[in-house]
Amino acid sequence: MSKIFVDACFRKATPYTPVWMMRQAGRYLKEYMEVRAKAGNFLNLCHNPQLAAEVTIQPLDIVGVDAAILFSDILVIPNEMGMHLDFIKGEGPIFKDPIKNEADLDKLIEGEEAALKLTYVYETIKLLKQQLPEDKALIGFTGAPWTLATYMIEGQGTKTYNLCKKIMYSNPKLLHKILRKLTDVIKLYLEKQILAGADVVQIFDSWAAAIEPGRYDEFSWKYMVEIAEYIKEKYPHIPVIMFPKGVPSFIERGLVYGKFDVFGVDWGTPMALAKEKLGSKYVLQGNMEPCRLYSQSETTKCVEAIQSIMQGEGHIFNLGHGILPDVPVENAIHFVKECKRVSKK
Fold first, then answer.
1. Catalytic residue among 28, 151, 216, 282, which?
2. Binding residues
């Protein structure tokens, strides 16, 4: 049985434009909060394949999306490379020993050895393949090397990225070594997700906007392209989605290139601009402003506006970033229904 989401990634005809939401398995669902409480904490939930599979499936049953995205976290990679990770309530993820120099980097596990430590992720995917309806796609994912590097250097989330940028401008060789080590692990990590059963993979560059446009290719995009091309070379039947958040100037200047299938458009990038610059080359995903979900009428307006630009051609509906924890579930359901309504052929 064909999967509408996979067909759309390859620009095949579909009965309507498929829809899913970033962070669709999460805190806005009381069912998720119940499972998370059972797990004890967020990392325990990521490490428990049965519970991770349960929360991955919840949005399909409750909200009606067309694809499930694996429940995990981008930071499991540096964690399994040897960096101790804690999720502190009210503060988010913390690495207590961030990378300051080459000696710190040299201590980390690399390549195949690091990828093999992520067994719980692959076990979750195998369970999901047994449980998901045949017509629903499963999306595997990773953080981009740059986004992971920011956490590994800063030790936590940051608004200024000053520690990363200090290395970027004063010791670029070290930053490239960090990015290289991450790229090599990520290639194998995504490959193992595919071998476990992922139908699609997405690369998230959540902190793309932290890099000035003239340096974005050097310190992020070229590594993402290398990962995408590694996957496409070996698994041409697996769609690859790229999602760099906050790069309209990069798009505008025609700097997006590479062998992948779908470009995720963030909410700060006009959909018409993305279509003009990229629509002939890549299927576009996105890009409703997530806060529109607080209002059903504003959601409908935005869905109709995106549909009028994309016309149901080469498009996947999504938010322009993740759904927020206090969005009413009925509004998320409304968004999904409206996407299907306006695009039904």
1. 151
2. 23-27, 73, 151, 206, 321
Catalytic residue from among 7, 11, 16, 23: 23
β-sheet with 262-264: strand ranges across: 67-69, 137-143, 200-205, 240-244, 262-264, 283-285, 315-316
Q: Give the pLDDT confidence of 202-214 residue by residue, as tens digits.
A: 999 999 999 999 9
Cβ contacts of 82 within 8 Å, gap of 6 or more: 107, 108, 109
Domains and CATH numbers, the chain: 4-343 (3.20.20.210)
pLDDT by residue (tens digit) across 181-200?
A: 999 999 999 999 999 999 99
- Tell me if residue 66 is catalytic: no
Q: What residues contact 59, with CB distance under 8 A and at least 6 apart?
A: 20, 21, 24, 25, 29, 65, 68
User: Token pair for residue 303?
Assistant: 């869905």
Is there a catalytic annotation at residue 282?
Answer: no
27 is catalytic: yes
pLDDT per position as a tens digit, 315-324: 999 999 999 9
At 214, list the tokens: 């003239």
pLDDT given at position 91: 82
Spot the catalytic one: 28, 36, 205, 282: 36
